[in-house]
Amino acid sequence: MPLSNTATRISLLGSTGSIGLQTLDIVESHKDHLQVVALCAGSNSLEKLCAQTIQFEPELVCVPNDADREKLICLLGANKPKKLDIVTGEAGLIAAATLPNCNLVVTGVVGAIGIKPTYAAVRAGKNIALANKETLVAAGSVIMSEAKKQGVKIIPVDSEHSAIFQSLQGYTNNDIDFLWLTGSGGPFRSWTLAQMENATKSDALKHPNWSMGPKITIDSATMMNKGLEIIEARWLFNLSAKKIKILIHPQSVLHSAVEFKDGSIVGQMGVPDMRLPIHFALFYPERVASTLVPRLDLVKLGSLTFEAPDYKKFPCLLMAQEVAESNTTLPCVLNAANEVIVDSFLKDLLPFKQIPKLLEAVLSLHKPARNPDLDDIFEADAWSRKEAFRLVQAPISSI
Ligand code: MG
Known about the structure:
Mean pLDDT: 94
Number of strands: 11
Distance between the termini: 50 Å
Bound molecules: magnesium ion
Low-confidence stretches: none
Helix content: 40-55%
Order of helices and strands: EHEHEHEHEHEHEHEHHHHEEEHHHHHH
């Protein structure tokens, strides 16, 4: 479905999160070309969703349950758009993702909750601006084969994958020798292993370059984020995980690169601002002027540096790399356990250093299914969450 020559009508899943808010900033500054037709948000942000509904006048809004629906109606009061449909739960998310009037679904929700609506959107022939990496980590094979069958475009919003996607324009993956996935190294890049033993939540939440939601910021501190991105890239670009290399780049200016067969390395640079990859995905394949994102001043920057990753300090990265190649339920289990464990860390239920140990414990207990279908994936996801909850509550000495 071509996106050019017509207004892009967006269903925004996760409209009050970091990706959602930045997407709406871009929509607001390009009203002639971008329109919001559906908004979806969680129970904790109904007031924000109310304000967005009044501002953007979508035809459909999705909230988690009936109580949220009543609250939203109350909040909207006389400002409720006349033709607004308010739907709820998983069925509501799927309705938003498959809305007939939508031609681009932006998946800004966090976690495995994105899998079913993304799959439904692909089956309905909608192009996807994919900001929910967990969907490809857990169900990459299923989503990408369906996307191929339906002829829909999956346009990455993750900054590294957007950089690779942009570098690959005009080429195919047969031309690639390696992908260089860059990462800042997170807040603990220059910490010693001993210092990291006592890292606190506020230390882990201090990302040096990017402004992102709390879950992904913790994933950056453990470098699980980069690990999940290897799996995401493996499915998105249909490559062996062995062809995806990690490069630590503290300035977060080279957002990733492709090393082609002839030895040329082609990458994409820009300021570390998520509005840049979101803007690209909303307008792809066109390049449209952006007034929101500051320009990169290379002279002012002066120099860029690169390092190899330290797997001893970041065992989560190694764990993800080890399961990335397999078309089994292992990546799904890793992702689901990580969601539970990071959430528990954010609720102060465990110390930072326990995150990789708990993940390893869940992975070692799993009996993976090969070539999983969606049912296998949801079964593995539920099993992994249950195991992770159990281990989070177990005494530390028993793990
Ligand atoms: Mg990223």
